[in-house]
Amino acid sequence: xxxxxxxxxxxxxxxxxxxxxxxxxxxxxxxxxxxxxxxxxxxxxxxxxxxxxxxxxxxxxxxxxxxxxxxxxxxxxxxxxxxxxxxxxxxxxxxxxxxxxxxxxxxxxxxxxxxxxxxxxxxxxxxxxxxxxxxxxxxxxxxxxxxxxxxxxxxxxxxxxxxxxxxxxxxxxxxxxxxxxxxxxxxxxxxxxxxxxxxxxxxxxxxxxxxxxxxxxxxxxxxxxxxxxxxxxxxxxxxxxxxxxxxxxxxxxxxxxxxxxxxxxxxxxxxxxxxxxxxxxxxxxxxxxxxxxxxxxxxxxxxxxxxxxxxxxxxxxxxxxxxxxxxxxxxxxxxxxxxxxxxxxxxxxxxxxxxxxxxxxxxxxxxxxxxxxxxxxxxxxxxxxxxxxxxxxxxxxxxxxxxxxxxxxxxxxxxxxxxxxxxxxxxxxxxxxxxxxxxxxxxxxxxxxxxxxxxxxxxxxxxxxxxxxxxxxxxxxxxxxxxxxxxxxxxxxxxxxxxxxxxxxxxxxxxxxxxxxxxxx
Length: 521
Hints:
Layout: H1 5-9, H2 30-36, H3 40-44, E1 58-64, H4 83-89, E2 92-99, H5 105-114, H6 118-121, H7 130-133, H8 140-145, E3 150-155, E4 170-172, E5 177-178, E6 195-198, H9 206-218, E7 226-232, E8 239-242, H10 243-246, H11 275-289, H12 293-320, E9 327-333, E10 338-339, E11 345-346, H13 352-355, E12 359-362, E13 371-378, H14 382-389, H15 404-408, E14 418-421, E15 427-430, E16 434-439, E17 442-447, H16 465-472, E18 504-505
Parallel strand pairs: 1-7, 1-9, 2-13, 3-4, 3-7, 6-8
Antiparallel strand pairs: 2-12, 5-18, 9-12, 10-11, 14-15, 15-16, 16-17
Helix pairs in contact: 4-12, 9-12
């Protein structure tokens, strides 16, 4: 699309030092970085860095891990119960065609938090060290820190072990999931691909503890405007949550997603023949042969309902506290999830189910109330949008666009498609009507006006040759192919995990290895 953000940035790359010269011992310390960025007064506890933005508005950024479009306002599943998220949608604008930049946690979150798409940075996978790919990027929380905000977070914001202390003044680190007795409960030997209700109370879970932590902060006055990130883990695998949420979704009454047995017959081999694709096909065989398809869907619905309850705890605290009228709210998820569509589970595909995400904005600057927007939006648009709504200066290096015009008028003209990538040669363009995907060995083309399930690949249809050419021209012309350091190759001192609590497992967040400032009172 001429003039689109993808075309404008298709030739741009983010410089990276040679891996052979990359010396973590010489990396700038958090305190030195703050000083070099003009935040010396904040480091020293002075007030001069606070005055510029002393009146706010505040920002509350709520993220939910691995949650697809199964929320009431998006209609992704008719049995989903998300009253708190739906109530938030009535206060602002919900994007019905919002998409991630990569269908995997690390590259998706890194793109959102830096405003730089994977085809610019070269950060495509969960193993890529995003800071190596983008050594000079100013993250979203750093941008607010530079303008006098108190920047705090908790739970999962960056991916798992790649949280960055330099991006926060305080971070409430995650310390592991509760383990289900006798796991795996479903008897599959496939990592954390498991589901079960737990005989625990909400308050025993890390997500609810995070919600209470956020609620306490939101209930108090603060000397500076704040940027708070609150990242919930459920419904990420394993699908474990207190039993009362599972009781709401009886397995026998659970509806399966739309499914076509021959759905893979017309897709390129490269769409399937990957390590994650082969694992996903095995997942499907395991689930269907053991008769647990409905059970897995019900467990996911239960975990979504649990996540919604925690979102409600945070929003209730905001609404009853001193910041109710002066806080921008954005809710997002990092990618979608598949439940057997095209015989695939998890994410890691370029199909609609894995790429579509909820994005909801509410609060100051969001003029439209309770409206749905059908323009295409991307997760990396969140960075420039929050900056715009808060009245901060923009950053030229960002690949995204401010969504503010659509928050004022959801029907406004918009010329920006969405791009999702799984590598330099695996890219998918989504417009309001079409999805076009290019692989090394073939293409996919779906008309969402007539085929919302993407069952009929039109890429070989002669009558759609011009459509395919037009959409193909929107793909990045020079996607990054840089070699990015892998997380497993980081020095051990850069990979320390948090100490786990008793009876917990899977340390999903890194210790903040650079000491943080004292926690907010």
